[in-house]
Design a protein that fits this description.
281 residues, alpha/beta, Rossmann fold, Hypothetical Protein, Haloacid Dehalogenase-like Hydrolase, Chain: A, domain 2, 6-stranded mixed β-sheet, 20% strand, HAD-like_sf, Cof subfamily protein (Haloacid dehalogenase superfamily)/HAD superfamily hydrolase (TIGR01484 family), HAD_sf
């Protein structure tokens, strides 16, 4: 079985227990033909993935950011952009007004924070990206002037308040929003009509001469289900949600045990010197 591209989720899949790339994985990727693209598909913003691609020795790769809401080619040019409309963003913020829930706003290359607290500091540490500090009202005014929406709204806080907000948003706006509860203290909110799979399909159609059936894909969470279902070979790490494992073709090792590297070695390591592999076939 030969694949022409690798597509992987980041957090809980590609990264190890130190939230970093293992030497084993980096060595493997750097040994592959450059004709085999390594495409990261994540809820992260672009800048939170670029340093990972650089560490993999692949600084100029396309990417699927914001769960498919923003698709960039290898030069950083936008291939597709789908956002949550500004009025709906304001509605989400209004729902949090009487709670202690922290709200982070994202558009394109920008991550906006209105206050420095436990949650913003944690995200800076986890993603190695610094936000733009701006008052909420100023962000809304800026987006209104420039006719922008949010590629992602991330809300974080007490698990009980997050459960309440998830229920309210699902009830009142479930037809317009994807609600990914990646942890019991987080909800990552994206436009309903996008997914990592739709983003990858846009990318493949625009830049490559093969389809999603010739891609091997890796994931662990609910927002990876569509990707693993549509890919030629969908791989769930051992720590994946049961629903993700149920749709996968294969279950590999835990992300802390280099599950992605384990599977890629089996598919590619023995083939890396063959003429067909070196040509990216």
């Amino acid at each position: 079985m030969t694949f022409k591209a690798i597509c992987s989720d980041v957090d809980g899949t590609l990264l190890n227990s130190d939230r970093d790339l293992s030497p084993r994985l980096k060595n493997l990727i750097q040994s592959l033909s450059p004709q085999i693209p390594v495409i990261l598909a994540s809820s992260r913003m672009p800048d939170a993935m670029r340093h990972l691609l650089t560490d993999l020795g692949r600084p100029f790769e396309p990417m699927v950011a914001y769960n498919g809401g923003l698709v960039l080619d290898e030069k950083g040019q936008i291939l597709d952009s789908v956002t949550i409309p500004l009025e709906l963003v304001k509605t989400i913020i209004d729902w949090t007004a009487k709670t202690e829930i922290h709200v982070s706003l994202f558009h394109g290359e920008n991550w906006y924070e209105s206050k420095e607290d436990y949650w913003s500091k944690r995200e800076i540490q986890n993603t190695k990206v610094n936000p733009t500090w701006m008052k909420r009202e100023e962000i809304m005014e800026l987006w209104s002037r420039e006719n922008l929406g949010a590629h992602k709204v991330m809300v974080m806080g007490d698990s009980n308040e997050i459960s309440w907000l998830f229920g309210e948003l699902h009830l009142h706006h479930g037809s317009d929003l994807h609600l990914y509860r990646s942890k019991d203290t987080y909800i990552e909110i994206a436009p309903r009509k996008i997914s990592k799979a739709t983003g990858l399909e846009v990318l493949l159609k625009a830049k490559f001469d093969f389809g999603i059936q010739e891609v091997i894909a890796f994931g662990d969470n609910y927002n990876d289900i569509d990707l693993l279902q549509k890919a030629g070979w969908g791989v769930a790490v051992a720590n994946a949600r049961p629903e993700v494992k149920a749709v996968a073709n294969e279950i590999t090792l835990h992300h802390k045990e280099d599950g992605v590297a384990e599977t890629l070695e089996r598919f590619f390591w023995q083939k890396k010197q063959s003429p067909e592999f070196l040509q990216g076939s």
